[in-house]
């Protein structure tokens, strides 16, 4: 079978609804929108965990956090894990990862043949040695994390480290593309060998700092979300790590708009960087219609909804991600409303590219959905966080379980898309709650 080249574009902490192809009329994302016009857009795509490291490692492993052993920030896959990069590397593909992968363990490659880092990504550690006798003990360095209020108050214009590292990532990717497809100096291009190319950027992840020009453009255009009332739930609304920041209380309306403007500006910056990658490929003589091109993010950003910033919650703004697959040689453009997950990328790429999928995956191939066939698809997906908390989404219903206190919530997104109302104890939902409890026990929570 034909073995197409694969391009995986990934941003960091990008909300599902801050894209032009998601009908957002304020943000400017022309390059992603151009790709999306020829793609199948998955409107209900979810992260396996609303935190950077578990999300990325689960996507690489094709498994949920509890299965692959990465349930919290700071953990990593075991060395030589059967990632999709390793499978493709072992079965005829050249594989190159540019930018952020977020590995912290001993195996910094995890199956990729080439590794082009932006700056400090490879072998980065968020842990420091603690003083004491005997064996060294490493603990998470909390000095690296400012509280959310400080992030909001310092929002504005500048040149944060993420933007600088992304520029280095894109420049390194440009050099790799030239060497792989052109190589006019040594004249040894590898273009006859199929390539899987991954480009992972750090923006629009906070800090909420962006270029002056783009920051100024968005400052008077962004509008805060209307559902800003914090939840009374102890985790959704009262988490000690990132407590709610109420407009008119802890922060002002203007401060919120400044943070949102910087975030939107960084989304546009990401789009521009991805546009450069597409240009470099076309400049090297590649026809993008021959490629499988996939775009997504590891998780979302609350961006002030329910007075919450960052991620970690099972609210839509945090757990839902932008996602499309473009392969016009085989699939007509369209939109899919079924519930899917980032872990499904693994089995999908294996099927499309003729690489054997290993045993033990929880990933499901999206090929049928890409072809417009959804009748046999179980319209359900899950997300986990911290080894104790679970979300199950089936159709429009979204069930939460929190292991610390055993609390449950049920949101009906058709009746309440802003997730303000708990339907779990309301009449008419008894059968659905019984189903979710059975599923929770089957999953092991």
UniProtKB/TrEMBL annotation:
Which domain of life does the UniProt lineage start with? Bacteria
Q: GO terms for CC? A: cytoplasm
Query: What GO annotations for molecular function exist for this entry?
Result: metal ion binding; sulfuric ester hydrolase activity
Is this entry keyworded Manganese? Answer: no
Q: Does the keyword Nucleotidyltransferase apply?
A: no
Q: Which UniProt keywords apply?
A: Hydrolase, Metal-binding
Using the record's annotation, list all stretches that form the Sulfatase N-terminal domain: 4-354
The name of this protein is Sulfatase N-terminal domain-containing protein
Recorded hits in Pfam families, A to Z, give: Sulfatase (PF00884)
Organism field: Eisenbergiella tayi
């Amino acid at each position: 079978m034909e073995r197409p080249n694969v391009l995986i574009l990934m941003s960091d902490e990008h909300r599902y609804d801050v894209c032009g192809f998601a009908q957002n009329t304020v943000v400017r994302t022309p390059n992603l929108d151009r790709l999306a016009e020829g793609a199948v857009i998955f409107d209900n795509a979810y992260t396996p965990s609303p935190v950077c490291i578990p999300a990325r490692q689960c996507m690489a492993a094709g498994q949920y956090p509890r299965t692959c052993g990465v349930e919290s920030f700071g953990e990593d896959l075991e060395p030589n894990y059967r990632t999709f990069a390793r499978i493709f590397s072992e079965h005829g593909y050249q594989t190159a990862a540019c930018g952020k992968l977020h590995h912290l363990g001993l195996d910094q490659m995890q199956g990729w043949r080439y590794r082009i880092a932006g700056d400090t990504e490879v072998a980065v550690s968020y842990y420091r040695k603690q003083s004491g006798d005997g064996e060294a003990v490493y603990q998470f360095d909390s000095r690296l994390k400012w509280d959310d209020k400080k992030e909001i108050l310092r929002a504005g214009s500048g040149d944060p480290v993420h933007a600088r590292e992304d520029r280095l990532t894109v420049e390194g990717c440009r050099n790799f593309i030239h060497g792989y497809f052109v190589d006019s100096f040594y004249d040894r291009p590898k273009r006859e060998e199929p390539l899987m190319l991954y480009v992972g950027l750090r923006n629009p992840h906070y800090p909420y700092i962006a270029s002056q020009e783009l920051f100024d453009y968005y400052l008077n255009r962004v509008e805060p979300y209307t559902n800003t009332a914090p939840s009374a739930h102890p985790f959704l609304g009262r988490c000690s790590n990132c407590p709610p920041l109420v407009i008119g209380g802890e922060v002002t309306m203007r401060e919120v708009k400044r943070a949102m403007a910087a975030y939107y500006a960084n989304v546009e910056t990401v789009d521009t960087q991805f546009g450069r990658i597409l240009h470099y490929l076309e400049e090297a003589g590649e026809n993008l219609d021959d490629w499988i091109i996939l775009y997504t993010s590891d998780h979302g950003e609350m961006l002030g909804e329910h007075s919450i910033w960052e991620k970690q919650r099972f609210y839509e703004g945090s757990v839902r991600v932008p996602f499309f697959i473009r392969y016009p040689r085989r699939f007509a453009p369209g939109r899919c409303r079924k519930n899917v997950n980032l872990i499904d990328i693994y089995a999908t790429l294996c099927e499309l590219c003729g690489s054997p999928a290993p045993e033990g995956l929880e990933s499901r191939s999206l090929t049928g959905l890409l072809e417009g066939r959804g009748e046999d698809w179980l319209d359900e997906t899950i997300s986990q966080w911290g080894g104790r908390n679970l979300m199950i989404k089936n159709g429009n219903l979204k069930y939460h379980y929190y292991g610390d206190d055993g609390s449950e919530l049920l949101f009906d997104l058709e009746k309440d898309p802003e997730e303000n109302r708990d339907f779990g104890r309301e009449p008419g939902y008894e059968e659905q709650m019984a189903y979710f409890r059975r599923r929770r026990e089957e999953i092991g929570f």
